[in-house]
Amino acid sequence: MTTTDWDAAADSFDEEPDHGLLDPVVRGAWAQRMQTWLPTTRSEVLDLGCGTGSLSLLAAGQGHRITAVDRSPRMVEQARAKLAGTGTEVLVGDAERPPVGCRRFDVILARHVMWLLPDPEAVLRHWVSLLRPGGRLVLIEGVWGGTGLSADRLTALLTPHTERIHHEPLSGDALLWGGEVDDERYTLVARLEPPRRHREVVDVHLILRRGPDVLLARRAGTGYADGLLHAPSGHAEDGEDVREAVIRETAEEIGVALDPDELRVALVMQHRGPGGNPRMGWFFEAEYDPARPPRNAEPEKCSELAWFPLDALPDDMVAYCRAGLDGYRAEERFLIHWHEDGDSVEYTPDGTRRAVPLPVAPAPTGRLHHIELWAPDLAEAEAQWGWLLGELGHVPYQRWAHGRSWRRGDTYVVVERSPDLTRDTHDRLRPGLNHLAFHVRDRAALDALVARAPGHGWRLLFPDSHPYAGGSGHYAAYLENAAGYEVELVAP
Known about the structure:
The chain is α/β, with parallel strands linked by helices. The chain has three domains: 3-191, 3-Layer(aba) Sandwich (Rossmann fold); 201-357, Nucleoside Triphosphate Pyrophosphohydrolase; 370-490, 2,3-Dihydroxybiphenyl 1,2-Dioxygenase, domain 1. It has helices at 3-15, 24-37, 54-61, 73-82, 120-129, 151-158, 174-177, 242-254, 319-329, 378-391, 443-452; strands at 44-48, 65-70, 89-92, 105-111, 131-144, 147-148, 165-169, 184-191, 201-210, 213-219, 229-230, 233-235, 264-272, 278-287, 302-309, 334-338, 355-357, 370-374, 395-400, 403-408, 411-416, 435-439, 458-460, 476-481, 486-490.
């Protein structure tokens, strides 16, 4: 289209009664539509092919700051007069390459302009470059008597820039045109995607327990950390939740089909490898089942499967996995493990520890805070309870003249020889406390505790029915110390 053609087409549109928005009803209808097309907050709007400035005036009236451009000096002169006092800048220039330099805008508004452009594809690329991240194009177009630009065609031109395109038909709203129309008229509001949200790979790890041991696989032929040990692991795929992912990876790597009910979340860790991007790792725990022994199901990626004591892990491990297992053994639940770019992916015993535990929220209302036991002999109680609670993962917490305490997490157990004690014996068969019950990780750990208990002042109750004194399927041990206190230890 030549310059003369452009000016003739533009003049013909501006001469239409509706295009100047002289009618208050028409003007009100356009103002109402503009409110839905433009941002609700004050924005920088570039009105291209502004004509006499009718849409610019509506946008300015809604609180936006306007820069208007038209190639016709006559149009620009009228627009400046119409927009006087609104703070609008009106420039003479081509809509294809508006004279705005390096400025960026929140909105580019163009009405009945795109259909006139000889290369709309190139123009859209340039217009998009003038928008701030998250900006939008508001393009009002149509097809009149077979001439113009259809919504389908303009949508196709916009698709390479964004998928967020809102098509709003306008033909059926007679108020916009001052009367009924039967051709295609529409607006496309194309919102450019804002800067991409931070996305992380999600990986999953299996801590397969066989008593005190965990299963590790030696990587081979993968191009990453080959020769080092790592737990069975992999990435969550599109559409998978993390539990589905670890079940799939376990079957693929070690040939074990896990049921979802067998899995327990052990640890969540955000990790960044040297020179890499952050990722989120979910560590799941499951118990070894002798009926389903693991096997090396991916020999092309793994040269060895072996069991290792959790409290004596080897050094030739991937540092990420080692940090996760160390955190798991310390009963941390959330960790950040951040490598510096020069770090090695291999665990180094004397290297800087990169894992930082994150504190969890305080205990909610109603959880047990502590238990206090009054004992007739503090020294004896300290020896007996101190051993048992230590074996169960409690650590010494408080110490004062008449008592001691041991803590695990936000709960602790107190043993005290109070001066107010009225009796020297505890009778668990009288009203009051009968016994304390504690979880034990597995049956092997429970059996080991029972075997060592007599050496620390505890005897096994109900030996004839042990370990099912609590009923079939309830694997537990009942211990009593010299002062008559009973403890129940329960294994899964």
